[in-house]
Amino acid sequence: MLYYTSQLKTYNIDATDGELGKINDLYVDDRNWSIRYASIDSRKWLPGRKILLAPSSFVEVNEAEKKLAVKYDKETIRNSPDVSENTNVSGEHQQRINEYYGWGNLGGNVMYAAGGVYAGNGTQPPTAEEIEPLQDDKPNKALRSEDASIGFRVHANGGKLGTVADFIYNDKTWMIEHIIVETNNSLLTPKYYTFSTDKIQSADWQEGDLYIDESIQMIQNLEPYKNKEDILSFLI
Q1: Entry pTM
Q2: Mean pLDDT of the chain
């Protein structure tokens, strides 16, 4: 099923023995748009901590009850490696957390194998050519905050299109498949367009810009969505 990432962040997250909190951010691999970790707002019971859970932790998305169940109890999560609330997620953090939980699959279809990253379907062992050797700084640079990406300026070939309003992910693969762009040519009647993440040509993460491989002229011929909420019904 397809869902908005903004919708996911309103759900209650349940451990096997009680509520954990809500997701306050998602960390995404900018090379293939797979969701690597969800960051849980745990200030009520673990203040000052950033709790990171990979999608392999998730048991079920319950849309009716607005809940997301995980397969660990609170004590297991409490004893996970400490990441301070206001700290960036470093490669060392990722390694310690993955070793603690024994995660082989780091969300979506990305898995660590033979000291590298393999972006495959996870059903067959990677070949030597498919494994990308890890560098000390590569995990840091590859992980991006979904929350910080909302509001990024989106540029098509030929000019600025609008800003990122939301993302759409697949709960089977935990890949972000679409971005939703809100046009800013009218404050009274905003319009929305959706683009596959395959269309993202490049990104300037420091300045907050995304570049879509599509012409402004082509986009002008598309019928925009008047409401963001209408988009999923057309994609499903």
Answers
A1: 0.80
A2: 81
CA atoms of 230 and 123, how far apart (whole Å): 34
Are 207 and 164 contained in the same domain?
Answer: yes
Same domain, residue pair 27 and 136: yes
Burial class (CB in 10 A: 0-12, 13-18, 19+), 136: exposed
Q: Residue 25 maps to which CATH number?
A: 3.90.50.10
* Averaged pLDDT, 137-156: 80
Considering the domain architecture, whether residues 92 and 120 belong to the same structural domain is answered as: yes
Residues 41 and 107 grouped into a single domain: yes
Task: Enumerate the β-bridge partners of residue 209.
Answer: 153, 204
- Measured between alpha carbons, how far is 230 from 118 in angstroms, rounded to an integer? 35
Contact indicator for 24, 40 with CB cutoff of 8 Å = yes
Q: How many domains does the chain have?
A: 2
Residue 99: count other Cβ atoms within 10 Å of its Cβ. 10
Those residues with Cβ within 8 angstroms of residue 223's Cβ, 6 or more apart along the chain or in another chain: none
Pair 84, 48: CB distance under 8 Å: yes
